[in-house]
Amino acid sequence: MFKRVSLKFTQIFDQLVEEANSIVITAHTSPDDDSVASVLGVYAYMKRIFPSKKTRIIYSGDKVRRYSVFKNYDLIEFVPDMTDHLGNADLLIMLDGSQYSRFTQKPEVLREFKGKTVCIDHHSSPIDKFTLTLVDPTSPSNAEIIYRCFFRDSIEQKEIEIILLGILGDTGVFGYLKPNQLGTFDTAKRLLKQGGIEIQEFLSRYSTIQEKAFEIVRELIKNTKNTKVDGWPPHTFTFITREWFETGKYTDAETSEATHLYMTTFLRTLEGHGWGFVVSPETDGTCGISLRSLPGSVNVRDMMEKMQLGGGHDRAAGGTFKPSNPGERVKVEDCIAKVVKWMEKNQAILS
User: What Gene Ontology terms describe what this protein does at the molecular function level (predicted)?
Assistant: First the structure.
């Protein structure tokens, strides 16, 4: 397992690609800026070095229209579950996640996958088994790892835009950087200068909000609660009910977009409430939970891992509530109750 970018890692990666006949690239469910940048970045590199290789990009989730401005986004296959579409792939490249459960509702299928696997990630979560692994939690974005692995010597304009998508997205336009991550400024400076890119103009190309996503934001604001559990810092939470979600015929992509906007704009901003979460239903019957926290408040990654729901970063994490029986649909209110009950029985870890 590699913990830092190195020439040796890239050489082994290239060898695995060279030996493969059919390749699938994927990233965690619910596409975000960094995961989209990761899959498009790796795909661009492979098509440059191995143009004849049969390579597909497959996501578990819905297509998000705002990413259509990026090169090759139209080639991504969005499906209910990527494990149902692996076909005869003999190399699976998994990006921006190191746990099978982040990519599929059927992680057992990935555990039984007969081909070889590659993982490139930057989360601190426990790592499942892969043929080749590069996980560097010190990197603020997975896209920057992709850049340092594959593009330091040569990068084209469209590839610069892809890498910047991930860096700006996962750093909150540099707002989340820590003192040990200042090298990202050098990377961004190099890319911005080489691409002749103005950040505000660049962001405006893909930062538009769909009307239905904005309707969800309004509902999230309406349902916002500020509360406290003994032994835990005060927090903010909100939700949309499954009935409201299904009546409005919203998609998972619209919910994901709205949740991201709500968390970026409102969560962690109320004085005295330095962390919080959003619970929302999904079309497959599960419910998603997304959490954010400020420095010195709750370690939300630790919380998700201990609840065995998911993982992520110390200050930005997420997970999934799954039904107890096939065909059931998880209730949002039950998920919130489970979170509160767990908090009442466990101690907060602050970081």
Answer: nucleic acid binding
- 293 strand-pairing partners: 275
Q: Which domain holds residue 152?
A: 7-204
Angle at which helices 142-150 and 183-195 cross, to 10°: 70
Is 349 strand, coil or helix? coil
Q: What is the DSSP letter of 298?
A: B
Segment 36-58, tens digit of pLDDT:
999 999 999 999 999 999 999 99
CA contacts within 13 A on the Cβ side of 261:
21
Residue 20 maps to a domain: yes
Query: Are 303 and 226 found together in one domain?
Result: yes
Write out pLDDT tens, residues 280-307: 999 999 999 999 999 999 999 999 999 9
The bridge status of strand 316-321 relative to strand 287-293 is: antiparallel
Looking at the structure, do residues 75 and 12 belong to the same domain, yes or no? yes
* Rounded Cα distance, 251 and 237, in Å: 21
**Residue 59 bridge partners (DSSP):** 78
DSSP state letters, 10-45:
HHHHHHHHHH-SEEEEEE-SS--HHHHHHHHHHHHH
User: Domain with 252 in it: what CATH number?
Assistant: 3.10.310.30
CA angle 22, 124, 91 (to 5 degrees): 5
Q: Is residue 250 part of a domain?
A: yes
Residue pair 264/316 in contact (Cβ under 8 Å)? The answer is no
The pLDDT of 222-233, averaged and rounded, is 96
The answer to whether residues 186 and 245 belong to one domain is: no
What are the backbone dihedrals phi and psi of residue 202, each rounded to the nearest 5 degrees, phi first? -65, -50
**Statement to judge: residues 109 and 226 lie in one domain:** no
Give the whole-angstrom CA distance, residue 10 versus residue 216.
42
Together in a domain, 198 and 236: no
